Every structure is written in structure tokens, then in C-alpha cells.
Amino acid sequence: MSSNLDAPRRIVILGGGVAAFSAASELRTRGYDGALTLLSPEGLPYDRPPLSKGYLLGTEDAAKIALVPEAWYAEHAVDVLAERAVALRPSEASVELGDGGLLSADRVLIATGARPRPLAVPGGELALTLRDRADADALRDALAPGARVVVVGAGLIGAEVTSAAVGFGAEVTLIDPIDPPLVPAVGEALARRLHAMHGQHGVRTIASIPVEISASDGGGARLLRLADGSAVAADAVVAGIGIVPDAALAAAAGIEVDDGVLVDASGATSNPTVFAAGDVSRLRRPDGTLTRRAEHWEAAVRSGQAAAAGMLGEPPPAFGAPWFWLDRYGVHVEAVGTLDGRFGGRVILREADGVPQAAFLLADDGHLLGAAAVDLPLLIRAARRIMDRGLTPDPAALADPSVPPRKLVP
Amino acid sequence: MSEGIDVGSPDEIEEGTAKVVEPEDSGFDEPIAVFRTESGCFFALNDTCTHEEASLAEGWIEGDTVECPLHSSSFNLRTGKVLCLPATVDARTHKVAVEEGRVVLYPGVDADDAARTAD
Ligand SMILES: Cc1cc2nc3c(=O)[nH]c(=O)nc-3n(C[C@H](O)[C@H](O)[C@H](O)COP(=O)(O)OP(=O)(O)OC[C@H]3O[C@@H](n4cnc5c(N)ncnc54)[C@H](O)[C@@H]3O)c2cc1C
Ligand code: FES
Questions:
Q1: Do residues A326 and A159 lie in contact, with contact meaning Cβ atoms separated by under 8 Å?
Q2: Number of the ligand 2 atom closest to the C-alpha atom of B72
Q3: How close, in Å, is residue A68 to chain B by CA atoms?
Q4: d(C-alpha A24, C-alpha A26), whole Å
């Protein structure tokens, strides 16, 4: 791969998210002692998951969500420039900045993340979206007690925004054509339980899609017309309908892009001096097939670490089963591996008083493919170890709520 | 503060679990988790994860690490060192010892290992 390249001396990382930060940190951990610059238009890197949780609710401030204290950057000789890259110039070993200046770089890591998918209907631009701190600040202002808030999209972010809006005392309507969402991520039973929480908290859920949003008067009020013929009035509309990778710079530089910058397991793109990691990247397997983009926090950390290894010409670390969490209405949900049963396997539920607490997907040969659980974090830590160690768990023990998680891992 | 406090007999804390000592009992300003590893060693850290608000005593204890039950940062039980994101700040250690058949916690006194590895 990059073995015919000289060892890097000037690395520039585009981005100030967790993928960019993880790559920078891993480069230093691996002993890279050359120049290291983070181009982070929003300033010091911060963490995004709190933007739909504590930061949106106002229980955590900007300092609390910083990825590391400011002193870390000086201690690790990482320069953070609050600037946006406007072009990659790999053939000139440089990156172009907004003022036309060039920053020399013998390796570049693209960790520019993603942008919210725009709501592609007339008036769709009237919807607020949530990706960065400024978005969260604007959204917090809109989620006032009694405000009529319509959330479009009941996936991870839409549901968390809905839960926060309820917390602020807003009157919330949640629109999503899929009922329940998140089945591939947490399985059918938990997806139903989680989706039902909206109604239990006074949220009106509508299984439809908006076809038009209009400003219904001179003020801030909006009117949404839905595909089922109904209409909903709102003081604020929020769209959480997925993300689009921010891959324009790579595409403009002639790097292979297909719904994300295509990378191998060490983050290498089709240009040997350019790497990509995090939400902007999409893994191409050795056989040429493309995976789904991960879009989760831990995946961004891991791919940043893998790209750090890749830039140094070292093999990427081996990672275990992927994991993510979500929080809503005070419950904490985690999942590891996959619950997507479309390719086979059987589902085992762990229930208490008829309510599903956890779901497991078991392969035909007895191996665990994935697990999800509500407020049972140790069960997921057990599942993760079962998967990473290739164990075959006893299905009856998985289903039995009286078996403590630790007893599942011999 | 160097006075030890009696946390109980060793078998009151099952292997692979932890017991929380509250500020009113320890005199220390934060809850302290006293861990017993699977190999029977005792360690103590501030109970609240340095990332958000989770109780490390409710985490997954394995070898000489504890993994936070909320976002999975791991901490070394001997030194308090944080081993992975999202937490980036080490956990504070406290000295704990088994003396005359009792588990004795020294709230606010660094564990010996923490002192040795502090850099
Ligand atoms: C509101 C919210 C809640 C979430 N909650 C969870 C959760 O509960 N659990 C979970 O597992 N995951 C969650 N995620 C997903 C997780 O946060 C993302 O997967 C992760 O942030 C991706 O990291 P990244 O570094 O790839 O991208 P980002 O974090 O998006 O960072 C991209 C960075 O690139 C910068 N950038 C963009 N263009 C340029 C340019 N041209 N030049 C230089 N820099 C540029 C941006 O300013 C930004 O700093 C959540 C995401 C959001 C938005
Ligand atoms: S609270 Fe411990 S890792 Fe987040």
C-alpha cells in the first residue's frame, strides 16, 4: 500500500470531530513525532452525541463537551487551526485554505463528517437540523414550553430531539413513515417498545411523510402538508432524516467516492497520500463490495485510529463487534453487532413481566450476531465479549432475566 | 485525611463487583467505589465516571480494569488511568487494604500504584 512512500513528516487532518481527534491521538500514541495539524472550522474538537442530549437540554455546557481539555493539544504538539479546507492538492502535497493559502501536507486525513440530509420537499429548508453546536443552540431556543414542534424522522436523532422537546414542555408531533423505526438496529421487539414511549409521553406520532412546508403567516408559524392528506401546524419543524457524507473535497480531488469516501480497513483512499475516517468514509472490503456507512460514535473512533496506523504504514488494529448507544426519555439503550435478521438467525428475547428488556440474534451455528438492551448495560458488555471471543451462549440463559450478565461469559 | 475506615469483611464484596462508600460515611466529598477483582484484589476509585455521571461500581470489572456502564470508557483500577474515549480524565484513586480481616479504605489517600505510575 503506502510502503513505497516516505514516512510522513507533515500530517494535516481535516475535521474537528471524534474521528479527527482519535486519529491525532493515535498518531502520537504510535510515536509519530512530525508536524500534526487539525483543521477544525469550529475550533477545539468537541463531542457530538451530547448535542441531542445533555447539551441540548442545557445540563452540559460547551466546556463539558470538549473532547479533551485545551492543554492536551500543546502537550501533544497538535496545532488546531479554526479553518476550513477548500481543496485538496495531493499532487502538490498540500491543502488549500479559505484565504487561498496553502498548508503543506505529505499525508492528509479527511474526517469532515457529514451534514444532515436535507428535506427534499418544497419549503424543506424551513426545517431546522442538528449536527453541530450552533444547530443545537438554535434548536434549544425553538423548544419552548407550549411551542408546537414537529419532528420529521423518528430515527436516532429525531427521537432524541423529540424526547428533549417533551422535556422542555413543547407540544410535539413526530412524523415517520416507518413504524417502528430502528428495527435493524435494535430488533423488532425493542424498536416497538422504544417507539411506543413517544405516545406514552404525550407525543402525537403520525406514520406519513411531509410533502410541503409553508410559512403560514408573516410570523414564524409553519404548515406541513402530509402525504396522507392531513396538515399539521408548527412553531418549529425539525428534520432528522439521516446524513449525507461531506465528501465534496475528495470528489473534487479525483478520489473515489460512492456515498462516502471509499477506504480500505486502514483508511486508505484511492490516492496513496490521502486517508479518510469517520462518518465521511465508507469501507470497501477486500473483495470490492461496499459496506453500509457506520454513522456511530465508536465506529468514528475506530476508523480514526485505523487511519492513523494506515498513514504511518502500519497495519490497523483488530476491532471487535461494533457498538452504539442512544438515550431517550431517561432510558439508555445499547446495541452491539447486528439485530438485522433479514439474512437469517433467530431472535431470543429476554423479557420481564412481558416487557422486552433485551434481544439477541443468534446465528444458525449458535454464535451471537448481535444484542440490544434497554437499561441493561452489563448485558451488552457480556454480549460483546461473547461475540469477540467467538463463544456460543446458551439460548435459555440469554432469555432468562434471572441470569446475571457476568454468568453469561465463562 | 489518613484515617482508615472499615468497609466490611472481604466477603461482603463479591468478586467482580464493587461497593460504594458514600461521602457521609467516608468524609470524602465524593462517593468512592471499592472494587474487588476476580482475583480477589481490592482497589478504590472515585465512583463517578470522569466523563458524565455514571457509577463505575456498576461497570464491568475484569482483570484490573473497570468499564463504565454508560459509554464504555475503561479505567485501570490500580492507577485510575483512563484507557479509552470518551472519558479523557483519569479517575482518582484511594488507598485500600485488607487489615486484620477487614477491608480498610483510606479516603483521599492515593493508592500506592497511582503514586508510582504518576507521570
Ligand atoms: C446530535 C447527534 C447525536 C448523536 N448521538 C449519538 C449516540 O448517542 N451514539 C452514537 O453512537 N453516535 C451518536 N452520534 C453519531 C456520532 O456523533 C458521529 O458518528 C460522529 O460524530 C462522527 O464523527 P466524525 O469525526 O466522523 O464527524 P463529525 O463529528 O461530523 O466531525 C466532522 C468535522 O469536520 C469539520 N469539517 C467539515 N468540513 C470541513 C472542511 N472542509 N475542512 C475542515 N474541517 C471540516 C466539521 O466542522 C467537524 O468538526 C450522534 C451524532 C449527532 C450529530
Ligand atoms: S459516563 Fe462513563 S464513559 Fe460516559
A1: yes
A2: 3
A3: 6
A4: 5
Residue among A54, A69, A377 whose CB faces B69 most closely: A377
Cis peptide before A316 (omega within 30 of 0): no
| Closest listed ligand to the CA of A326 | 1
Residues 6+ apart with CB under 8 A from B90: B50, B75, B79, B80, B81, B82
Task: Give alpha helix (H) positions in A17-103.
Answer: 18-29, 54-57, 71-75
Nearest to A297 by CA among A59, A18, A78: A18
Quick one: which ligand is closest to B56's CA? 2
Distance between CA atoms of residues A346 and B65, nearest Å: 33
Other C-beta atoms closer than 10 Å to the C-beta of B81 total 18
Residue type, A125: E
- Report ipTM (2 d.p.): 0.92
- Which residue shows C-alpha cell 465479549? A385
Kindly report the pTM of this predicted structure: 0.96
* pLDDT single digits (tens) A167-218: 999 999 999 999 999 999 999 999 999 999 999 999 999 999 999 999 876 6
For residue B84 and ligand 2, the question of a CB distance below 6 A is answered with no
Alpha-carbon distance of B51 to B84, in angstroms, equals 11
Pocket probe mutation, ligand 1, options A117, A297, A328, max atoms within 8 Å of Cβ? A297
DSSP B119: -
